[in-house]
């Protein structure tokens, strides 16, 4: 498993340095890049509403790697749970499932003084 790159935490949107979209046009790309280097991630606004966040490429790559790193194990775990759940429920789709359930419910419970739990009945 590859290591997830270390990154400086990106502050919440409401704490980012703001610049209006008109400044992006006025300052030009070089001016925005200077802001990025001196002040960190830049929140671009339009009529004071957030529209975009400009991050350094390294920060974006690290965020993407971290998201992929955390998503893959979670998805694999969920898929394994789905498969096990579907396998257990497949018993209910067999032709004799109704008869087996009725037979189980009609007869007396034979627990022998113990509570029984498990994957089968």
From TrEMBL:
Residues 1-21 are annotated as: Disordered. InterPro entries: YefM-like_sf. SUPFAM superfamilies: YefM-like. Belongs to the phD/YefM antitoxin family. This is Antitoxin. It comes from Caldimonas caldifontis.
